[in-house]
Amino acid sequence: xxxxxxxxxxxxxxxxxxxxxxxxxxxxxxxxxxxxxxxxxxxxxxxxxxxxxxxxxxxxxxxxxxxxxxxxxxxxxxxxxxxxxxxxxxxxxxxxxxxxxxxxxxxxxxxxxxxxxxxxxxxxxxxxxxxx
Length: 132
Hints:
The chain is globular. The model has no long low-confidence stretch (mean pLDDT about 95). It is about 20% helix and about 40% strand. It is α+β, with helices and mostly antiparallel strands and about 130 residues long. A hairpin with a 2-residue loop joins strand 2 and strand 3. A four-stranded mixed β-sheet has the order 5-1-7-6, sandwiched between helices. Strands 2, 3, 4 and 8 form a four-stranded antiparallel β-sheet that branches. The protein contains two helices and eight strands, in the order βββββαβββα.
């Protein structure tokens, strides 16, 4: 019996003064497009630790989780295959903003003037904004 399971990912939302922090993707899929910072949860890792780690690796910022936003599981959200992402809002606690790991750039965007985003991140951000 061939059993396939979705991969688990995390995404971090950092909202400050009407801006949101985004990364420009270094790799495919969506190379060169903007996205929320995040990535795959490692085996044996808590999702809470994964989002803090991924955001640090991609942005250079040390963060703390504010709250769980939600779980997004559309099988078509990632062209690499079925992924389930757990999204958290985060507060910056230190570090220096600089791109790293899977990010070729990191930038704050006005929440009312966002670029076209990767994956389903347009939907995720709109969902978050409806709740706050």
